[in-house]
Amino acid sequence: MLGLVGRKLIYLVPVVFAVTLLTFFIAALLPGDLAVAMLGDQATAQNVAALHKKLGLDLPLWQQYLRWLSGAMVGDLGSSHRTGETVMHAIAGRLPVSLELMALAEGGGLLIGLPLAVLCAARSNSVFDRATSSGAFAMLSMPPYMLAILLIFAFSIRLGMLPSTGYIALSDGLFANLRSLALPAATLALVEWPVLMRVLRSDMIATLQEEYITAARAKGLPKRRILLVHALKPSSLTLVTVAGLNIGRLLGGAVIVETIFALPGLGRLLVDSIYSRDFIVVQGVVVFVAVGFVMVNFTVDLLYILLDPRIRHGRV
Amino acid sequence: MAAFEAGAELEAGTTAAPSRRRRGLGIVFWLAVAWLGLIFGLAALANLLPLEDPTRMNLLARRALPSLAHLLGTDSFGRDLLSRLIFGARNSLTIGLIAPLAGLCVGGSLGLVAGYFRGRFEVITVGATDVLLAFPPLILALAVTAYLGQSVVNLTAILGLLTVPPATRVARAATLAVAQREFVVAARALGAGHRRILARALLPNVMTPLAVLFLLAVAVIIVAEGALSFLGLGVPAPAPSWGTMIAEGSTSLDIAPQIAFIPAAAMFLTVLAFNLLGDTLRALTDPRRAAP
Questions:
Q1: Predicted ipTM?
Q2: Which domains does chain B have, with CATH numbers?
Q3: Count of other CB atoms within 10 angstroms of residue B39
């Protein structure tokens, strides 16, 4: 098991390195001068020269990369040229909002998807199962921006129950905070549940064919116990992987949802920096998110090894 | 970003096809085909149809409800919604088809060659796909758009790039599964060169999973194009695309929700149709696929 962890860890290093390399060199795609693009209409020869000096744009590209990478290693991703705020400070301020949003979304997705999956697997091919599975399939074709406007229309405009924009910090009260996150989190939860439900359902149907389930039935164990303990536990392994992989999709969804609902999260920071051509922030956020995503996937892999006794004892 | 993991699913075979038993193809399948036929037909014939200019504003007829003059009404600038919907379909479908096609050609060839020759090339290819997959897809698309600038060509290239890694993985997995089989060995024994083996023995076996991936990728890319356009980073204004139309309509949800709902419905049905086609093809070609 340690060998497996070690091998994954060794693979992690070049991937993270390549991610930083790619993030940095995407900037080379920019047609023309980075400093001119950042300064926009107010660019004077003097301003451009000053920004060149500050960002080290006159150095060869590989030196610029080394400079940026050595800063990034110690958490210095530069600072916004509009506001002067350091990128790390901006990220630290926005990250909790995005994390809370994603946690609520994933939780909500599980809350809908898990019971439906168990019910469907228990009566696979029944009318209920077919209706739910078809519904989940249709929901897969619903992008977050579509769900967001539907929810805003229903709950904010028609029913007037929930706010459609604005964010209230946790420090201003848990209820107000959750209220302000209700629609955005619900949007992402509705995007998530079909994915989770489909995976868990097909895994559980496979598990329920196993001999030990037949044995448990023959022993006369209550149906509920067989479903929720004997079948659900081994079936939820793939769910862990999918939930981890979903973080990437959630991050993408968070960009959209944070923009629509005006939440001060990481995604909004990225989009705003793109609008204002604040490329130092764009670069910082992208590399932060990508490295974070790699780490999350690595952790999920480890979790999988820990959870599955067959892999843990090297018997697969 | 629904089903961006379509490639991963195909590769790992984690999604058992829905247990619905298909007798024939079913009415839903043909409805999906009919809808796509309708949309493609309208988009192709857009110039021949008696439609208003999709960018012509008429501030006197803003947010008009459907009428004989404007069959679907008008948007917040008084532009004809039906016309924008059909010309928008042109943009959304062109990008939605060309991007995955290009990505699949590149990724498919890479995967095929990597799976056949193995060795260092395979290590590098697999490593490169891992790096690309390390970026959440929409974030990568946003970052590249930020630098490259907005245009239909750039957008197609960026979204095409997103389909390369899944295509590479699917093609490599499919190639690995058959590369040692008897018919390949036989072809080699008969003196076939690498090129002939790749093209005549291996390619046909890779085509089916790639075709399934293509249909699912079209659905994903239409959604992704919509997302970028929704954020104002997609098809440049004033040209219509479904994502732009939904974004523009979302600002007047309270007074005229149909402006956002009409393009949203069109996009939903189209994406659903492609997903259905992809799913049907997957179920048809290998109902018990454990792993390709």
A1: 0.85
A2: 79-286 (1.10.3720.10)
A3: 20
